[in-house]
Write a structure and sequence with these properties.
By secondary structure, the chain is of the alpha/beta class. It has one domain: Alpha-Beta Barrel (TIM Barrel), CATH 3.20.20.10. It is built from 9 helices and 8 strands. The chain has helices spanning 10-34, 52-60, 71-83, 101-107, 117-126, 162-170, 190-207, 222-227, 237-240, and strands spanning 42-46, 65-68, 89-92, 110-114, 134-139, 175-181, 213-215, 232-235. Strands 7-6-5-4-3-2-1-8 form an 8-stranded parallel beta sheet. Helix 2 packs across helix 3 (71-83). The structure holds pyridoxal-5'-phosphate (PLP). The site of pyridoxal-5'-phosphate has 14 residues, from strand 8 and helix 9. Pyridoxal 5'-phosphate (PLP)-binding protein, which is involved in PLP homeostasis. Residues 38-244 form the Alanine racemase N-terminal domain. Belongs to the pyridoxal phosphate-binding protein YggS/PROSC family. GO terms for molecular function: pyridoxal phosphate binding.
Length: 247
């Protein structure tokens, strides 16, 4: 093991505590303004590019949910964190290749990025012998641009239509369909994106009443996502600092 598993330095701990206090107060304010119960919104700390020591420090500060977007990085980090005796709820939020499904289901509690029937089936196979079902969100495309990923609302496309993907998840014994996830499309005002997402989610819940989770909003736009019903906000840079590389 490397230095990354060591306890964080006091200055880093103070930095994380400060970031967390700010994000928590932004979430409190957004819930108050939206007239929503604070308990309805879960903050996922997106720890990609940051070491296991940061995860341990955040867990020590009371953060229960962590997000990662790359299997190789996440698998190693989750193992390091587990070796330290800490077991956060791990959310896989990134684009996922089918050949990584087997690895991801070993440490993830939730996958937010199921966006094709083929991926849903790969996860279904991989979760066949899990003890606990894997919670799964279908990632939807808000602008309907298939090229940028996300299942297509209102489309019967057997490979990537929202309903076919949701059915593939719902039919898998090892998975539980819990809701929808989306990222605001490039070039869209967050207002417009999350208003559209709220409509998609309303229609979706009419068909899948148990699928109440809505994963939307990142550091720059989570207040708006909360106004439009987000139950899970995915916060990286506002908590941990700017990442050295954009991804
Ligand atoms: C990196 C990432 C986030 C967090 O982004 P920040 O702007 O750093 O808060 C949220 N969601 C997804 C899918 C991401 O990849």
């Amino acid at each position: 093991m490397t230095d990354s598993s060591a306890t964080v330095r006091p200055d880093r701990h103070a930095e994380l505590a400060g970031g967390l206090a700010q994000v928590r107060s932004r979430i409190d304010d957004a819930c108050a303004q939206a007239g929503r119960d604070r308990a309805e919104v879960t903050m996922i700390a997106v720890t990609k590019t940051y070491p296991a020591s940061d995860v341990l420090a955040l867990a020590g500060l009371g953060v229960t949910d962590m997000g990662e977007n790359r299997d190789q990085e996440a698998a190693g980090k989750a193992a390091e964190v587990a070796a330290a005796g800490v077991r956060p709820r791990w959310h896989f939020i990134g684009q996922l290749q089918r050949n990584k499904a087997r690895s991801v289901v070993r440490y993830a509690d939730v996958v937010h990025s199921v966006d094709s029937v083929r991926l849903a089936r790969a996860l279904a196979t991989a979760t066949a012998d899990r003890q606990e079902p894997l919670d799964a969100l279908v990632q939807v495309s808000i602008d309907g641009d298939a090229a940028r990923g996300g299942a297509l609302p209102g489309s019967a496309d057997p490979a990537a239509g929202l309903e076919p993907v949701a059915e593939a998840v719902a039919d898998a014994p090892g998975m539980r369909l819990v809701g929808l996830m989306a990222v605001a499309p490039l070039g869209w005002e967050p207002e417009r994106a999350f208003a559209r997402l709220a409509e998609i989610a309303d229609a979706f819940r009419a068909v899948h009443p148990g699928a109440t989770a809505l994963s939307a909003g990142m550091s720059g736009d989570f207040e708006i996502a909360i106004r439009y019903g987000a139950t899970h906000v995915r916060v990286g840079s506002a908590l941990l600092g700017m990442r050295p590389t954009l991804r």
